[in-house]
Design brief:
Length: about 375
Amino acid sequence: MNAENPPRLELRDIRRSFDGVEVVGGVSLRLEAGQVTCLLGPSGCGKSTTLRIIAGVDRQTSGQVLVDGQEVSGPKTHLPPEKRAVGLMFQDFALFPHLTVADNVAFGLNHTPRTARMARVMDLLQRVHLGDFAEKYPHQLSGGEQQRVALARALAPRPGILLMDEPFSGLDNRLRDGIRDETLALLKEEGTAVLLVTHEPEEAMRMADEIALMRAGQIVQTGAPYNIYNAPVDRAAAAFFSDINIIHGVVRNALTDTPFGQFLTPGLVDGADVEIIIRPQHLKIDFDRHGKGPNPTPEEGVPARGIVSRARFMGSESLVEFLMDHDGSALKATVPGVFLPKPGTPLWLTMRRDRCFVFPCQKQRRVADPFKTPRPVSA
């Protein structure tokens, strides 16, 4: 990192313990100006604690917080929140009920001349489509309108960093996508570095330039949404973003036999248990071959037969659940549009090899080979 252009926000090995229990365990992160990073993870993983440490309302047990290359919290330094040029926006919005919309937005501009203060307030209200609401009070607004007022108030002092803790969780699903898109557009216009905490993968994928996936107090993977979705670090990371199918196997001579053919599993010792992960949308229902047609391509693998156990229409797609002939295991596939085969219907399935992930079995559960004698199928 160039010392002349330090990141807008940097965390160095942040740790936080409560009563001897470490809830944040060595978090390091960098945000550049104009970058939106989502700290994504399940409830209780340490996301909000990390945010509170950055804001200055909590203090880490060890590690450093730097803003524009300057330490604001460390072994010998701990600036209060108001000295950090960090904006805060939380899920309850925390608007002052006794102040008008305009006065709420102006709250952080007390040291700005009145003319400049009101110009900034009205500019922001116009940009969040609330220019006509300046004299209203929070109780007169909808949830989406209150969210936009809270955003305008957080941005009014022009903070270099904005921290957002589940800011859209209280909104109706019908409004959420539009509000998120409007918020992202305004944040990009302001050039603010944003750290957004969420437990919703869809929200992170929709808003983030970078996702930091957090689990049990640690960041387990960081990357652009496309990369973190398509190259998960482990099974749990893949499962956090969507439903998955898990096919168990055992390594033999760097290959693993499955009902869908052999998979290359180099680097794993013979006898190691592995999990082959594939998302339902990449498990293809083969309507044409029915197990009897031309040989499959290497990308498709070997077809395997399953018996439909249930089919449901989900809106834009149908979810079909199968019990597989070879071992009675359950797999799920999604099909665009309406496809509702009756339970008991036999169908053939193939797998997209380039869409599979192979990981060592997380629980190291011993499983029997699906075939006692390896079949002569293409790898």
